[in-house]
Amino acid sequence: MAARIETFRGWQLRRELLRLREGTGISMEEIAKRLDWSKAKVSRIETGRTRVTPSDVRLLLDEYGVAGEHERQVLIDLARAARKPGWWHNYPDVVASPYVSFEAEASGLRMYQTQLVTGLLQTGGYLRALLTSVRPALPPNEIDRRVEARTARQQHFLESESPHLWAILDETVLRRPVGGRDVMLEQLERLKEAARLPNVTLQILPFSAGSHAAMGVPFVIMDFDGPAPISAVYLEHLTGELFLEGESDLSRYTLVFDYLRAKASDPEDVVPVIEEIAART
After folding, report:
1. What is the pLDDT along the chain (281 residues), one digit of tens a residue?
2. Are the C-beta atoms of residues 263 and 205 closer than 8 Å to each other?
């Protein structure tokens, strides 16, 4: 059975419910006893392994002494929003990362890519070439399915007003031959088209920028609007992924992104830079 993907709203809700419980000093065992639940149910709610219903949220808020109508309604609305299906629900067999749901609900994405074109801007040919080389055991029908899911993800991005994507690509990304010349030329053309979109800011970090703090470390800073705007840093590595939300982490990655932004090509000059690289491909 495919794993259930946690949405950003669900993540936001469970974090707040955990904060409220710990703030009252009530143990997990005690709240389970009061509500005639199992401790496992409380644990699953607080760790995101199950979706919490609006009615269960009301019961928890009663026990935690949350009486303010506005605060209660915000959390109940989060429970409802967390249960709404996203585009990824049609692809449970090939989409397992919560990143896609966070991406879909973000108001802004600031990212630095060191080796590969970001998924939102990849062509089908580029993705096929990547999957064939990185996961050679994948059967053709699964590759087709993954390309289909990526297309749906990109379509959602193009059709929605948010998020705004600010992508800084290392020059290596444009010069690394993925899938052969024709595939790369098609990919470079896609990047030129993306650079002209109103919700995309694209920059290229040239080799001449030299060494810097993010060498070899791709990252995404996700910004979320709402009553209490928050941000988180997403890191992907060989065996998993990591979300950072601490102020010190956010400050550091924001500082690094701003440094890279200052060193990278001006967004207005990106298309000529891509055309020059395409001419040499």
Report:
1. 345 688 888 998 999 999 999 999 999 999 999 999 999 999 999 998 888 999 999 999 999 999 999 999 999 999 998 888 899 999 999 998 889 999 999 999 999 999 999 999 999 999 999 999 999 999 999 999 999 999 999 999 988 877 999 999 999 999 999 999 999 999 999 999 999 999 999 999 999 999 988 888 999 999 998 767 889 999 988 778 899 989 999 999 999 999 999 999 999 999 999 999 999 98
2. yes
If asked whether residues 133 and 28 sit together in one domain, one would say no
Q: Which of 41, 15, 45, 47 is nearest to 29 (CA)?
A: 41
Which CA distances in Å does 197 have to 157, 167, 173, 202, 271? 11, 12, 20, 10, 12
Do the Cβ atoms of 196 and 78 come closer than 8 Å?
Answer: no
For the record, the structure tokens of 129 come out as 């070439």
**Which residue range(s) make up the domain with 186?**
88-279
With residue 241 as reference, give the H or E element that holds it: strand 240-244
Instruction: Based on the fold, state whether residues 235 and 249 are members of the same structural domain.
Output: yes
Q: How many domains does the chain have?
A: 2
0.85 cut: is pTM over it? yes
**C-alpha dist (Å) from residue 110 to 29, 244, 257:** 41, 14, 8
> What is the torsional sign of CA 230, 231, 236, 237?
negative
E strand or H helix at 107, and its extent?
A: none
Residues 79 and 14 sit within 8 Å (Cβ to Cβ): no
DSSP, residue by residue, 77-106 = HHHHHHTS--GGGG-TTT---THHHHHHH-
